[in-house]
Amino acid sequence: MINKVGVIGAGTMGHGIAQVCAMAGMDVVLADANTEVLERALSKVKANLAKGVARGKVTEEVRDLALSKLTGGDLFAAATRADLVVEAVPERLALKQTIFREVEAIAPASCILATNTSSLSVAKISSSLADPGRMVGTHFFNPVHIMALLEVIRSKHTRNDVVEHIQSFGERIGKTVIVVHDFPGFATSRLGVCLGMEAIRMVEQGVASPEDIDTAMVLGYRHPVGPLKLTDMVGLDVRMAIGEYLARELDNKAFEPPKLMRDMVEAGKLGKKSGQGFYSW
């Protein structure tokens, strides 16, 4: 059973993963090389929990439990006694490989290693490990404490018992778990990014406004949020990098970022995090 969790990377995804694990009663160490980022992440968790209590979505008991279970620390503190280490750093293969080599050297042999990648090959990330069978993909969705899905990715190396433990872990933190095989983009990013790129091409061609395109998908297809607003929420730079990767790996131009997207990224219009994308935030 997974009771001690280390989360490496205290950005948008990392602090959310740490929060839901702590709310489920697990001991969690959230780590980041940047102490300012780590402090902001811990403050964000407190704010999320306070908002949840105010809205009647979180009990005071769960809030207090989560805050008592969550601490900040470094990579050593996050990995040395962990049953599970989840990496949530930017989508750069070399960076993820380096972190997991460091984690493998100090984590218990029984510790499961999980990468919160949205598109990169789990097999490639685990290729430099002595035991690649202990690695699995755990693709969470933003905001982690609200979104119900956990996409579990098994590579050709991932052992069955690792997948089973992660499925149980996902259920314990209140997620619906799907299991997919290690193909570029998996199930969610492959479909979502393709739709997002086509929506951007429609804006570029003057088919309709971002608001009307999004409304069409929300009301016509019951999507919870439109593809352009979602692109703003994820970050245009992040989605552009994923699109480039998928276009190359799948040899499919449907994933190629449109010129409008490249121009917006170059101009610093990255979406919600910069205050301006297809929408003003």
Most strands sheet = 8 strands, mixed
Total number of distinct structural domains:
2
- At the fold tier of CATH, the topology name of the largest domain is Rossmann fold
Task: Provide the CATH top-level class of the largest domain.
Answer: Alpha Beta
User: How many runs of DSSP E, i.e. beta strands?
Assistant: 8
> Segments where pLDDT lies below 50 for 5+ residues?
none
**Helix content, binned percent:** 40-55%
Q: In the CATH hierarchy, what is the architecture of the largest domain at level 2?
A: 3-Layer(aba) Sandwich
Query: How many individual helices?
Result: 12
Strand residue percentage: 5-15%
What structural class do the secondary elements suggest? alpha/beta
H-E string: EHEHHEHEHEHEEHEHHHHH
Helices, strands, pairings?
Elements: E1 4-8, H1 12-23, E2 27-31, H2 35-54, H3 60-69, E3 70-73, H4 75-79, E4 84-87, H5 93-106, E5 112-115, H6 122-125, E6 135-139, E7 149-154, H7 160-172, E8 176-181, H8 188-205, H9 210-220, H10 227-234, H11 236-250, H12 259-266
Parallel strand pairs: 1-2, 1-4, 2-3, 4-5, 5-6, 7-8
Antiparallel strand pairs: 6-7
Explained architecture:
The chain is an alpha/beta fold and 281 residues long. It has 2 domains: 4-181, 3-Layer(aba) Sandwich (Rossmann fold); 188-266, N-(1-d-carboxylethyl)-l-norvaline Dehydrogenase, domain 2, CATH 1.10.1040.10. It is built from 12 helices and 8 strands. It has an 8-stranded mixed β-sheet with strand order 3-2-1-4-5-6-7-8, sandwiched between helices. The N and C termini lie far apart (41 Å).
